[in-house]
Amino acid sequence: MPNKTAAKKSLSYERKNGYERISAADLKKLEEVCRDYMAFLGASKTEREAHDEGVKLLLAAGFKDLDELIAGGASLKPGDRIFKSWCGKTLLAALIGKKPLERGLHIVGGHTDSPRLDVKQNPLYEDGDMALLDTHYYGGIKKYQWTALPLALHGVFVKKDGTKVVVKVGEDPGDPVFFISDLLPHMAGDQMKKSLAEGIAGEGLDVVVGSAPCKDKKHKEKIKYRVLELLKERFGVSEEDFLSAELEFVPAGLPREVGFDRSMILGYGHDDRVCSYTALRALLDLQKTPEHTAMVLLCDKEEIGSYGSTGMESNFFENILAEILALAHGKHDGLTLRRAMSASRMISADVNSLYDPLYPSIMEKKNASFINQGTSLSKYGGARGKSGSSDANAEFVADIRRVFDKAGVLWQTGELGKVDQGGGGTIALCMARYGMDVVDCGVGVISMHSPWEMAGKLDIFMTYKGLKAFLQDDRKAG
Fold it and tell me: Is the separation of the CB atoms in 374 and 467 below 8 Å?
């Protein structure tokens, strides 16, 4: 007689912790990938730094700068590894495949910007015997989470002559850090009657940067002037140089392992540097020339709608692809470009929200992702009635299932909260407009958009493994 238990299991979809299913070889590789990711995350607190770290990895792996190839009149052939920097913030890398580009590319796209506090253009002032920098928050944050914790300052001053001065203060053990104050509970009665959204105002996120006066008594604002003296000594800049600066306050400190079992990682910027790193690492680790060109996009501005010249709403992707087509085929025409884009397939590699046992009411448990059960595949995103979602075709989702299962990738599906309570957008919508198949897939995160987010190591590794399998897939079903 048939085994009824086995038959029942074959018909059922069951969840299981990934650590109960992972092989010993994968477990060893998991620790290697996560160790390298922590190093990348700690060095990439801004989109500029993530770009620069990515370029270092690409150059070390033998990738060639597309601009240099164009200037040298080179041509592209299968097996060539190339990259293109866009404004020092967005990065495209590709391994040229065997088939013509118009047959489509396999693309993975993530973003390297994260919620933060941007320094305003005229920010420095003195009040209450302290010097402060005025900020404007970037992306969706809970403002109260950014008070009463150590902050680091990262970014650049760009002078009128074009000289760029890199700033990073608050990360080295001997560095000072910076701080946004909050009220003590004894005096916060009125504040605590307000909602969480109203308790801290956007204009209240000003950062303390000094309290000691300069020695010159002629200045009215001696503490502010002392800060300017220190900025001049260390960076060679004046107050006017703030007008053309991009400076960001971020949480100070390195990523750390979480739990007695060290199975999770706490860090700033998992959203979305965890998917950006795993995508780039997957491309770097491809040993053979794929059938279809494998491409990775690490873009900027996703947290504010993907606008601007470095966001996916710009034309940078199609402009660079046109250049690649010209080098690969000796010429390029608009029809070939459009054929290449519409025939392509893409994974929009972005994080998802995990089920949190402390906040169960906002999740629909059957359709939530759980920590360390594998990479999270999301057929659709958006909010409420799927507003702002590309909603992947079932045929494409089925083929991703094939790719992942064939490669031994542990994966799960997930939604961003209950229908009327959650929702969010990714770059999937920007790329689906070209007619290509796109689906969201990435690492699940606890406390998304907070100064410190938590992700599971197994989910990070399985995202890397899944993206690698997708990039090298030859599209042959079965």
Answer: no
CATH superfamily for 4-114+268-472 is Zn peptidases (3.40.630.10)
pLDDT at 1 (0 to 100): 46
Answer whether 440's CB lies under 8 Å from 428's CB: yes
Tell me the per-residue pLDDT of 319-333, one tens digit each, with 9 for 90 and over.
999 999 999 987 778
Locate the domains of the chain by residue range.
Answer: 4-114+268-472, 116-251
CATH topology of domain 116-251: Aminopeptidase i, Domain 2 (2.30.250)
Confidence of residue 384 (pLDDT cuts 50, 70, 90): confident
Distance in Å from the first CA to the final CA of the chain: 30
pLDDT in tens, 275-300: 999 999 999 999 999 999 999 999 99
Bigger pLDDT: 1 vs 429: 429
Task: Please tell me the predicted confidence (pLDDT) of residue 117.
Answer: 98
Distance from C-alpha of 291 to C-alpha of 339, rounded to nearest angstrom: 17
List own/partner pairs for 403-409 with CB under 8 A and 24 or more apart: 403/466, 403/469, 403/470, 403/473, 404/375, 404/377, 404/466, 404/469, 406/469, 407/465, 407/466, 407/468, 407/469, 408/23, 408/26, 408/465, 409/374, 409/375, 409/462, 409/465, 409/466, 409/469
HEC per residue, the chain? CCCHHHHHHHHCCCCCCHHHCCCHHHHHHHHHHHHHHHHHHHHCCCHHHHHHHHHHHHHHCCCEEHHHHHHCCCCCCCCCEEEEEECCCEEEEEECCCCCHHHCCEEEEEECCCCEEEEEEEEEEEECCEEEEEEEEECCCCHHHHCCCCEEEEEEEECCCCCEEEEEECCCCCCCCEECCCCCHHHCHHHHCCCHHHHCCHHHCCEEEECCCCCCCCCCCHHHHHHHHHHHHHHCCCHHHHHHEEEEEEECCCCEEECCCCCEEEECCHHHHHHHHHHHHHHHCCCCCCCCCEEEEEECCHHHCCCCCCCCCCCHHHHHHHHHHHHHHCCCCHHHHHHHHHCCEEEEECCEEECCCCCHHHCCHHHCECCCCCEEEECCCEECCCECCCCCCHHHHHHHHHHHHHCCCCEEECCCCCCCCCCECCCHHHHHCCCCEEEEEECEEECCCCCCEEEEHHHHHHHHHHHHHHHHCCCCCC
Tokens linked to 420: 């009327």
Please, are residues 350 and 430 in contact by the beta-carbon 8 Å criterion? no
